[in-house]
Write a structure and sequence with these properties.
Blueprint: E1 16-21, H1 25-36, E2 41-47, H2 51-61, E3 65-67, H3 70-76, E4 81-84, H4 91-100, E5 104-107, H5 115-126, E6 133-135, H6 143-153, E7 160-170, H7 174-183, H8 189-193, H9 195-205, E8 209-217, E9 232-239, E10 244-253, E11 258-265, E12 268-272, E13 283-285, E14 288-290, H10 297-318, H11 326-345, E15 349-350
Parallel strand pairs: 1-2, 1-4, 2-3, 4-5, 5-6, 7-10
Antiparallel strand pairs: 7-11, 8-9, 8-15, 9-10, 11-12, 13-14
Helix pairs in contact: 1-10, 4-5, 5-11, 9-11
Length: 353
Amino acid sequence: MPDWGGHHNAKNNTPIRAAIIGLGRLGSRHARHLVEKIQGVDLVAACALEDDQLQWAHDELGVETTYKDYKEMIDKENIDTIFIVAPTPFHPEMTIYAMNAGLNVFCEKPLGLDFDEVAEMAKVIKEHPKQIFQSGFMRRYDESYRYAKKIVDEGGIGDIIYMRGYGIDPISGMESFTKFATEADSGGIFVDMNIHDVDLIRWFTGQEPVQAYGLTSNLAAPELEKIGESETGVAQLKMNGGVIATLIGGRHAAHGNQVELEVMGSNGWLRVGEHPDLNRVTVFNENGVTRPSLQSFGERFDNAFTDEVQDFVNNVAKGTQPNVTVDDGIKALKIAKACQESADTVQLVDINL
């Protein structure tokens, strides 16, 4: 279990000076956590393209200096750590620039969309072994997944036979997703939605996939066809140790945010997030008996996001590399893209990691 208590910079006992690139739906959450929850760090600068986002960071969070050009921010600011929460296609160039500037980097998933750019990114990261790099697979920090993993590791459900990962956004998020995907390439349903499930399947099984078969549809949101996106994606993975896994991504859950993982073992099953309950309240009224549901990934994983970033800050302070490596990010991206390739070509795709 990682130590998530606050640590100050071991060298001089002062907080780590950090900046953030991107203040959208996830970036603003990370920024608020850095200011209000994370120990041992000061958020001193922020970069975004929207004036209202920069104004929010200044007024709400007290971030002194704001920029629209990330290179200018890195060049000018006295920082040693940067958080990259910009659209995925920009992750490689931003990480490369930051690493070459001597900074520690926390980069949200996925690492990027273009394999050549991601390979160059990984090369630069490995050329700077004393700088800390961490990718945002926050589900490994979620208490429920950690508890399930412990049960599996201790043989509590026997050998894993099958796994299924759901990642389905609420209908209410469709408008903001459509705007995002119109302005930037999301990478497709499997890269955008299921890359976390891919990472969990690798983490739980210790196996690598060798084949993928994917299917997509737009029955519930035909308007996404125009921007080259899919509303629903389903993929089967064949793992090298015999485990079979299913990924299901979607954007049309009427009840809320459905993020679920099923692990079927030879001696029992586990399900994480089977019911996306907002809390422990059950409402009895004219609508019958109902349970309020989580409406966003932010609500569901707020503690995991906090623990993940705290662990990164602690790693920076202590000079230790995280358990999640850039190679984990590359493998997850290759697997998710293989699922998309299969869906696009209607062919079984071999995966060579």
